[in-house]
Design brief:
The protein is an alpha+beta fold and 87 residues long. It is built from three helices and five strands, in the order βββααββα. Strands 1, 2, 3, 4 and 5 form a five-stranded antiparallel beta sheet that branches. The longest helix is centred in the middle third of the chain and has 10 residues.
């Protein structure tokens, strides 16, 4: 399934991952207690480890609630469902 994935850091330090189909609204959001937990989910989507690490490294440098986006990607629906993203 073609999806857009983005991440942001909340004021609490938790990390949100948003997954949405292109030109779709609303979009499911899951919140994780740490960057490490969010990293596991993003890697489970099949995002390149280098891209995940580079993007997550930027989270402390951008303000809270600033969204960082990955390129659109094809993620198997089963992988999305396994992480609680019901699209």
């Amino acid at each position: 399934m073609l999806v857009n994935v983005s991440v942001n850091r909340l004021n609490s330090g938790r990390v949100q991952i948003c997954v949405m189909k292109p030109q779709s609204n609303p979009h499911p959001v899951q919140t994780y207690p740490s960057v490490e937990e969010a990293r596991k989910v993003l890697l489970g989507f099949g995002i390149n480890e280098t891209d995940v690490d580079a993007t997550l490294k930027l989270l402390p440098e951008v303000g809270a609630n600033e969204t960082l986006r990955f390129s659109s990607m094809d993620v198997p629906q089963g992988n999305l469902w396994a992480q609680g993203f019901k699209l």
